[in-house]
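Final report, results section. Input specification for complex C-07:
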Amino acid sequence: MDSSALFSIQLSLMVAVVSTFFIIVIGIPLAYLLARKNFLGKEVLDILLTLPLVLPPTVTGYYLIVAFGRNGFIGRYLYEWMDWTVMFTWYAAVLASFVVALPLMIKTGRAALEAVDGNLINAAYTLGHSNWETALRVTLPLAKRGLLAGVVLSFARALGEFGATLMLAGNIPGKTATMPLVIYSLAASGDWSEATLMVVLLTLMAGIFLYLANRYSKTIF
Amino acid sequence: MGLVVSVKKAVKGFTLDVSWQIGNELAVLFGFSGSGKSLTLQLIAGLLKPDSGVISASGKTYFDSSLHINAPPQQRSLGYVFQDLALFPHMTVKQNILFGAKGVPKCETTERYREMIDAFYLNDLEKKRPSEISGGQKQRVAFARALLRRPDVLLLDEPFSALDTPLRIEMRTFLKALRSTFQVPVVLVTHDASEAATLADSIIVYSEGSVIQSGTTADVFGSPKDERVERLLMGMSL
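Structure output:
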């Protein structure tokens, strides 16, 4: 296995971990808002956040270029102020994985949070607990199984992200080429033995991760 | 001590328009399902907002539409026992009860908690989860949790409806004893005439969102105002 293949394993794990971190920090509060609050445009927001789940990743990647590319409506300002673009960096791979995997957290999390008995939340209010305390001590703990499932699915999706990453981060060996991209390159160039090794490795990683997640969720809940 | 309720609330084709007050007593809101009894409790607790009117307890105004006062549930000193008890399944009995200690000075929490454990015979159950205890024990945990803060009023939304008859009778006796120990005004919602007769100091009879008669238990049972009240008291359908 050459150095760029080894690097891709490290990069894939890093991208999945970092994007999952942001998915937890941003996705759970968003799922909570969608599940338990009423506001104008709520369903539109849900649709926008869920779209990457049903759109081809290349389309999501295209939108991300429109937004974050050097001439994109956000990327333009980043380039102006910081002389920096996210395009073709590993941050782009994180951004692509984040956007593509976020809907899994939102959908699973929203369903779990909506399933929490409203009477339990009312009981917490009548016992003097604020919205924050109630969310942290009642609503979120009661939805933890569903939330954990959302985190696991998001991580697994982030680990396997291909299309949007290719569009946004490119396929630069040793820089932005994650495992799925390396597998694609190896297969395209006919290096089947190396491709098979990477495929088995990625499958094993995902399988071990799912096994640990299942086992861990059984012991703590 | 006491509770004043004078509210109007329209919900999905149903209009609640009631006005009553109680002192330090056990008042029963009595009527068939759908007559607005539970809705009244939710309005008192601040879980829903009345369209207009006034709610005050022990001299504190919780809601007054003319003065634009609407205290959130957290600021109302009320103990609420829900129909399904609403015990937190992820917490132990001890954690459930102590969840009701919000606002209780830290130095008093342990003492009050022990007081509740003793008063409600929960000594051996503190580490158990709600799923591991019986129906009657769950009831007692719900009462202990609601009373730990020493609320101005205790609101009970058909808390005994899911129990079988012997346990229901036991809980009625228990509630009477509890009244004499804690001296807290109680509003009990029920559609069970015998429950109303055995427990109530006063009865407020609801029908289709209005109060059709109110008075002491003897008054209401002794001289029902009209045929509707009579039928209700006899447990017959209207």
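Chain B touches chain A through 23 residues (CB under 8 Å). Chain B is about 35% helix and 25% strand. This concludes the modelling results for the funded period.
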